[in-house]
Amino acid sequence: MKRLIGPFNEIITMSAAPLRGALTEDALGLIPKGGVLIEEDQIIEVGNFKSLKGKADHIDLIKGDHILMAGLIDSHTHICFGGSRAGDYAQRVAGKTYQEILKNGGGIHDSVNKTRAASESDLTDLVKMRAKRHLEEGVTTIEVKSGYGLSVDEEIKMLRAIQSANELVPADLISTCLAAHVCPKEFNSHEEYLNHIVENLFPELKKQNLTNRIDIFTEDGAFDTLLSAKYLAQAKAAGFEITVHADQFTSGGTQVAVEAGALSADHLEATSDADVALLANSETVATVLPGASLGLGMHYSPARKLLDAGCCLAIATDWNPGSAPMGDLLIQTALIGASEKLSIPECMAGITFRAAKALNLSDRGRIKSGQLADLISFPVGDHREIFYQQGKIKPDGVWKSGTRVVG
């Protein structure tokens, strides 16, 4: 059955917008008084609502002023975790640095203890709750990392919880193994721990079909560039896609990511001009995480420079219990957009089809024939209102794979 949804004051299709570089208003691909024709989970046709009415078996009539765009994609989250790190926040605003808190047993180590104490069922419920909130705010595809287990059994527990939650919410949860988050205290050296993960966890990830993505935190206090490069090469050789936490506090991770052929290099707060050039001349997506900048009181990643250099720029929340607890993709995108002077099309591309590229997904993020019918509508008559209101206007309609799941 072919269903027509509409009419909408404007449909933001982004159908012909390029994957790389700066964008101007024409990249939005606006269709006024538009409708979307859907069959099962796919978009069949997009165009003038009246002209599409004769092709539909059923019409979902939209009343009042509304704008339609593709469902949002959050390509970097850590929403599988137990406990809270409000104590870390109190220390940071009192003057302690992220690295100082980590060295003193807080930070990631604190979340590891609390996540290990949680059952798989507990973690499933927590991921489900957070994913449901994201979906209600228009995020239809959510990347979710492990990384607070830091042992074979605990990482498997986390990834199973993510997998179970994926079956309980309409949003697509894309799992990533971040066992290489920091070195757990049970191991004598970082190299020993990474070897243990490669030898004992990688085969189980494949055997149990838990994820096809591997991540590593390349940073002082986590894993250095040499160990990171070796680990990523081993992950690729084992058949995994790879991504990198890069340049959050110091440079070096971007070079590792580009040379390894990573899908994305994420964070980039400490990225240099040379790193920007490396990304611009690679296929690696530059993913910026404004939520971490807000949570840590840091400057934003150089999003304007990255776009002007010709990079593919994605924007993600980094939703996690420590440095980025807000987890609001629209608000964070509006804030980095205002600070870095990103155009509205650049903001929208960064949380739709360019974010999809960071996850190696080409079937979503635009409104055009052949794409998944992941759609969100806003109760406004002008698309500029969405970011003008700094993310406070939320979708009142969300469709996942053609089915209305919110509103």
UniProtKB/TrEMBL annotation:
GO molecular function: imidazolonepropionase activity; metal ion binding
Group of enzyme by EC: hydrolase
Domain Amidohydrolase-related: 67-405
Keyword Iron listed: yes
Alphabetic keyword roster: Histidine metabolism, Hydrolase, Iron, Metal-binding, Zinc
GO biological process: L-histidine catabolic process to glutamate and formamide
Pfam families: Amidohydro_1
Pathway: Amino-acid degradation
InterPro entries (alphabetical): Amidohydro-rel (IPR006680), HutI (IPR005920), Metal-dep_hydrolase_composite (IPR011059), Metal_Hydrolase (IPR032466)
Protein name: Imidazolonepropionase
Species this protein is from: Reichenbachiella faecimaris
